[in-house]
Write a structure and sequence with these properties.
The protein has about 500 residues and is mainly beta. The chain has no helices and 30 strands. It is globular.
């Protein structure tokens, strides 16, 4: 049977801010749509992907479901569409909620099918045509219950950007909608406190920033949001969709910060957004990561969470196997774009534009990025792709620019006596393959390997056979290599 990975969509697809919803016997994911290697967020039209609830490895592309220029506010399509959410309304139709960058209003599109296409329907307003003053109309989330229709939104940055000086930003808020799904019939209620109002509340240590998401699971309502830290998705619990909600913890960090007390990032971190969803017998948190050495080229990932008897959810570790339900079979070859650990010489780097010198003479150039007058270091590795005659869509994914002290990690593989590692590499250097850790000396060092080839070459080496479930790390000791594939044989 085909296995699922992280990212769960094909490597060439960039759909962050994923909101999964089960409609019938399929799960549909709605999200923003980045451009690979793009220079801003959400440059593409909305697309949708779906999979059978009993086979989360078989994702189907449903096509473009809504174009930027379909909204009357954006006839030329010049403004990006930010993170959307979707629901089935009381009338049985499907509603897509979104915001157009530059306009402080939430828009709604409608379709007879969860797979779209959607047509513009309305803007969310009061009966008199006015818009609620409290909260920026950003990152909408929608919940339809017998008790009513609940819309959540908001944006609470650390600093007020130009034009936001007079905005009322207490946190992420909720309003009720009429059954027409666009008329506001209540005043905003604060659901999760932002930085300006969190002192003395349960949100004080993790104030709300953005990325509203809402689910009703069992006896609880779960409000998921991105904290002011950006990389973490936190959650609050309440007994009513109208609140009050109490902060309970971190669900996931795209750098595993906070997991089991971890204080060092295991990935180049950036913003995060996603939702919880029960799919079959399991519950997953969907999140996203940054690729291509930029904040603006994000891919959707997901990992299973475990709800405790009291309803709380411990923070989950990010993995390479994601929706698979079990670790990956070691005895196969895997593209390295499924690495869930990727760090360079400076383990604390955030995800930035990079202008790296090529390994093996192959140069992939990105626009240089400057922060506080300093150029970002050129040493960071990142996941990218290049043209390839035999690759899917004519592209080959790989990890680019792994220099001394760079580490790529994969969690987890299940071994059944495999004792040969196979690696597709190019460049020149010395690498070590380790299991269950990446600090040489404390981890189990399987084998060392010298690399010396300007073109892609398959290397293999023997090690003491492994049994059971293990994480695998590839660490560069010296030199510079690109890394395309990994697998194991007996």
């Amino acid at each position: 049977m085909k296995q699922a990975f992280n990212p769960y969509l094909p490597f060439w697809e960039t759909v962050p801010d994923g909101e999964p919803h089960v409609f019938g016997d399929r799960v549909y994911v709605y999200g923003s749509h980045d451009r690979r290697g793009g220079e801003d967020y959400c440059l593409e039209d909305y697309v949708c992907w779906s999979a059978p609830v009993n086979d989360l490895a078989e994702w189907k592309y449903e096509g473009v479901i809504f174009r930027k220029n379909q909204d009357p506010l954006n006839p030329k399509g010049n403004h990006p569409l930010f993170a959307p959410d979707a629901c089935q309304g009381p009338d049985g139709r499907y509603y897509l909620y979104y915001c157009v960058n530059g306009f402080n209003i939430i828009s709604v599109a409608v379709s007879d099918s969860p797979a779209g296409p959607f047509e513009f329907y309305a803007h969310v307003k009061r009966p008199d045509g006015t818009v609620p003053e409290v909260g920026l109309k950003f990152d909408p989330a929608i919940l339809v219950e017998e008790s009513g229709n609940y819309l959540y939104y908001g944006f609470c940055p650390k600093v007020r950007f130009p034009g936001m000086e007079n905005d009322i930003l207490p946190g992420l808020v909720m309003v009720k909608l009429d059954d027409d799904m666009h008329t506001v019939i209540s005043e905003p209620v604060v659901i999760a406190n932002g930085l300006e109002t969190s002192e003395g509340t349960s949100f004080a240590d993790h104030p709300a920033f953005e990325a509203s998401s809402i689910r009703h699971i069992g006896d609880w309502y779960y409000f998921v949001y991105s904290s002011i830290e950006g990389h973490e998705l936190c959650y609050a619990m309440g007994k009513s969709p109208e609140g009050p909600f109490e902060y309970k913890g971190i669900l996931v960090s795209n750098a595993d910060l906070g997991f089991e007390g971890n204080k060092e990032p295991t990935n180049y971190w950036g913003n995060n957004h996603g939702g919880l969803e029960q799919i079959g017998d399991a519950t997953y948190i969907f999140w996203h990561r940054q690729t291509h050495g930029t904040e603006y080229s994000r891919q959707g990932c997901a990992d299973e969470v475990h709800i405790l008897p009291d309803g709380t959810i411990p923070q989950v570790e990010i993995t390479s196997f994601g929706l698979n339900g079990s670790p990956l079979v070691a005895a196969e070859m895997y593209s390295t774009h499924i690495a869930c650990h990727l760090t360079g010489p400076n383990i604390n780097d955030k995800s930035y534009y990079s202008q790296a010198v090529g390994c093996g003479g192959h140069v992939i150039s990105h626009s240089p990025y400057e922060e506080n007058g300093l150029m970002i270091p050129e040493e960071m590795p990142f996941i990218t792709e290049e043209k390839c005659d035999s690759g899917e869509k004519g592209l080959k994914p790989f990890i680019y620019n792994m220099r001394a002290e760079a580490v790529a990690g994969f969690k987890y593989f299940e071994f059944a006596g495999e004792g040969t590692v196979k690696l597709e590499l190019r460049g020149k250097g010395l690498i070590k393959i380790l299991s269950d850790g990446f600090d040489v000396g404390s981890a189990n060092e399987l084998v060392s390997l010298k690399v010396d080839s300007k073109d892609w070459k398959m290397y293999d080496a023997l090690f003491e056979p492994l049994q059971g479930i293990h994480s695998i790390f590839v660490k560069v000791e010296d030199g510079c290599v690109d890394f395309a594939a990994i697998g194991f044989t007996r």
